[in-house]
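Colleagues,

Please find the record for the two-part complex below.
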Amino acid sequence: MSLMDTKPLLGRVEEVGGFVDLNAYEAGQGYGAARKALTSMSPEEIVNLVKDSNLRGRGGAGFPTGLKWSFVPQGDAAGEGAKYLVCNADEMEPGTFKDRFLLENNPHVLIEGMIIGAYAIQAEKAYIFLRGEYHQPYRRLVEALADATARGFLGRGIFGTDFNLDLRIHSSGGRYICGEETALLNALEGKRAQPRTKPPFPPASGAWGRPTIVNNVETFCNVPGIVRNGVEWYQGLGLTEDAGTKIYGISGRVNRPGLWELPIGTPIRELVERHAGGMREGFELKGILPGGASTDFLVEEHFDLAMDYGTIQAAGSRMGTGTMILMDNSICPVDMSRNLQHFFAQESCGFCTPCREGLPWIEALLLDIEEGRGQEGDLEVLDRNAQFIGAPGNTFCLHATGAIEPLQSALKYFREDFDEHIRTGKCPYHGRRL
Amino acid sequence: MATINVDGQQYEVKEGQNLLHAVLSQQLNLPYFCWHPAMGSVGACRQCAVIQYADEDDERGRLGMACMTDVVDGMRISIEAPQATDFRESVIEWLMENHPHDCPVCEEGGECHLQDMTVMTGHSVRKYRGTKRTWENQNLGPFIGHEMNRCITCFRCVRYYRDYAGGTDLSAFGSRSRMYFGRSEDGPLESEFSGNLVEVCPTGVFTDKPFATHYTRKWDLQSAPSVCPGCAVGCNVFPGERYGVLKRVQNRYHGEVNGYFLCDRGRFGSHFINSDQRIRRAGIRADDGIFEASGASNAVAEAAKLAKTNAIGIGSPRASFEANFALKKLVGEERFCTGLSDNEAMLIELALSIQREGSARTPSLTDVEAADAILILGEDVLNTAPRIALAVRQAVRGESLSMAEEAGIPGWQDAGVRGHAQQALSPLYIASVAATRIDDVATATFGSAPQDIARVGAAIAHEIDSNYAAADIELSTTGNDFSRQVVEALGSAKRPLIVSGTGTGDPDVLRAAANVAWALKAQGSDPALLLSPMEANSYGVALLGGGLSMADALDAMTDGSPAIVMENDLYRRGDAQRVTAACSESKMLVLDILENETAEHAAVLLPASTYAECTGTYVNYETRAQRFYQVFEPDDEIRPAWRWISDIADALDSSGAGWANINVLIEECAKATHAALATISPPSDYRVEGGTRIPRQPHRYSGRTAMRAQISVHEPKATVDDETPFNYSMEGQNLGTQDGAAVPFVWSPGWNSNQSVFKFQQEVGGALLGGDPGTLLVVPESDSDEASRATKFRDVPDAFVATEAFLVVPIHAIFGSDELSNASWPLASRIPAPFALLNIADANRLGVQGGGGVSGPGLDASLEVLIDDRIPAGVVGVVHGLPGTRTMPTGRIELSVDSNFVRRPNGTSDVIARG
């Protein structure tokens, strides 16, 4: 059994000991899945296969990938014009660096996944929408695309079939909101990066008004393995009802921060204790943002839970990107909340009122509280804002909803900290008083 | 229809609408910002939140934006539920974090939608402790003031300016809470429809700059229903007056004509009313040639003497139907000239005869917006009848809307439609002499001399139905290609529209347009045909008719016949030498608004009212007769032209030949001409609910004693108006339920801004409660016999052949070609220096570059050369109506380069008016 059978995304990186170029990738069964898909399977078979595999979107929302693909109209129903496949590589979620690692070390697994995906929805144009600051991934992708094209894996008549794929990189101007797939499409079209009204959803009307699939980097990277080894193998990889592996990451005061491809459903405590080597001497784990900044805090009572979509959701948070930010006992929850809200306020696209005007107010209030200027009634204002901004549907897209998740859970789990700041007029962690 | 339950009350609403549109149509109050009835929904402001319940048992419901929710039969919602009112209050609270507390010094104060919505939601205590964001503002030119600090980021401005009006130089910059709406750098907004930003902006970011220079609160403005004198569209307007000064012009909603928007000539072109070139006193020329203010009665006596000696009368396409009728009555049919130039008169007669044929519909602007394929033949509507061009821009979006409909995206979901359909446009074909400013949405354009435009039109007609126009018209390759595309597009359209007009001065263009429309009709489609004349009452005065052509009139004058010239600068109607000869030989009574060259020759001069200072009727391009009412009483000796004529008639015949008031005149006029004239607006004894009259002044009108305290501290008795149903006071009611032609301003409790217009409509965006005003005077007698129609315009002009001498074709400028608005100071810097358009090859041949000067016989002055990439070789386009080009040579002229040419500055009012 090779590492590729247990770690389909990063096993080859481990085997090679770093960057997997085209030769190394091919030597490890690379592009076999794409060849198999294009030469021996129909698009519907692939869509059904991915559907049956129970692969869920790894960008954070966890939407079933095969189901998404099945929404794309095929044949005459698609009407005239191109269809598009887009890879969302605008990885800007704070604390998240899994896509970057994949792009830098194993770009061909993404390209292979996109070839299969494009064939499945019969799109002949594809884009990788890449975070602007990702310079090394950009260089690696440029090289990988050139290599794959030279080998005939991209371009016209791939693997001797009549399927063509024009795959391009779009280096983003850089906004967090471009992670929202419709804002990404607007940006790709050269428009303001603000989300679109849904419906229509991109599979019906996406880039340039045409059927479009947008998937995360890690999602595409799962596809070749599924095609190669089948549904049963894939579902067998997961420890819980979710299927496959997941790249988990940890940042914070642990002994070995980093990321690991592990069976999906690995418990939180195992990730922290075993893979990240436990907390550093003198620090206690106090809270976790399980899947990036836009997820609710989890606390002690949740640390034995399995990191999968359903379990974390049941606990009141989201697995999100699966890359955790740990808050230890030296970190002020108020200050951390302020830091997070600063990020979200900065990254608001400015389109709708609650997000544009509400988040800066929250940030200002948190700064006041942190710096000892908090007043009685401030928490009620925070609660009211969190309630009105956070409810899905109150804002145009889910940016503000995501922003409120860590805040509302902080207000719930660490309320005593907030109260103490206001009561004492200073931060008990930093003693800061301006 | 769908039944919806709003807070326990059942309402019947139209399906296919969004919920906000539906509840406003029921006259319910629901705050909003980003939604606009003409621009649909985008869901940006989150202000119109309501609670929607899943079913009868649902007690909690779910908060959602009304503007983004489809109306569904049986749905139950609440506007008043505390969760909804709380959220809406929060939205205002967020917006108010940064909105300055400068209402007392803000131009929008008192008619600010943001103020209204703030009060409506109940937000009053500021909890936000931070500072407010500030911006540097931009100089956006003479029309629009800019104060970004007030911005609430509703995105309406850019959605209007870019998406609706096709402008490109106003954008949304920045992101997050630092959104900036402006230009990339200071400079005048380029769109000809920029003024609507003033009404589209829900607060005081974009304001009416000329208004701000002599500012008055909305509640202190006196107003009455009026009609724009700027062109033949007849947009309905609210002129606002205080202290005897025209302060501003705002849009008056008309469901069929202008809807919610005006052009900038209309909005900013009326300041000629305050011009220092106004003729203010009656005068008589003394023996030494000097004018003396004589007092009205002396001047009338002198005028009567003149009228008695068998004077001829020259009317005007910019004077009201009634004034023209009065003059015609005074001098008699056979001695009355309409005041149209002979060519224009011929073109208008032709256009009217085509409309009488009636086989093609004459479209309102609402109909224009519904057209699914358009051919514009020769007419540069953006410059001759600008509001039509804005309607054409909406029509071409039809393709996008049908694509969206197919995809299940409702048409009101504006961003969804645009995202899905991208730039998809319905077919629009433009054949024109020079490039136009709506070319950007054209499927294809074709540039040629007028006669070739007529030829291509004839070929299109013949191709559609071979009974029309002559066979075998040879066209150029580009002409053939254009014609083939047009035939296909019009042929497959359900509601094709042909647009033309008198702008090229060539009757064959009109004939070709008629042939295309008639051929389509013969093929069973339902075409519309729009033929636009040049001036506000061109069709009106032509329908009135007169026994003298302009040539006859000038001849008679040259022969020494005295003349009464009413509101007409003859130098715009005929060759300057000929007019000078006529004016010098004729003893003239001139009644006019502004000093002009004709007036300089007058023996007797009488100051005439502007449209805002009198009551009358204009007949627009549809032949829709629309009444405008006196907004305010002019100062000095200014009086309506018909009133002067009435006094002269009385002086001639003491048995009461004149008219006691405008009602008497209208009645006589209606009896003698078109009965509809008596019914297009309510008579003076019309009363609204409760038996009251309608106020010209809002209920908060202030300063009635203070405003004339320097004269007397006693409040004068308000003038009794026995001519109209309006009061010159605050007394009476303006509920909106009255006749649609009698709405003097829009204002409704809680809705102080122009957004209150929905309270005056049957449904949002629909007809006014009391009906949209106006009646078409030309009602096609019957569907004429097709065979005779087909043979009517068989002849096709010869193809244009370029020669050494240039064919002169008039080019029109939205700012510059209209006589009165040229004296409106805000327009001055937008009026171009007199120019000539040349093809680059011709310019090279002459040895002149863009910016150089050319002169030629018949041109009063050298013209600045502008290179146009569409104008054909051998044609020179000469801007019409500017000094040196008020009338222009016909036929071909030799051009020569003026090597000493110095470009004249963009017009100052002085340069423009005096020539």
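Confidence is low (pLDDT under 50) at residues 908-915 of chain B.

Comments are welcome before we finalize the supplementary table.
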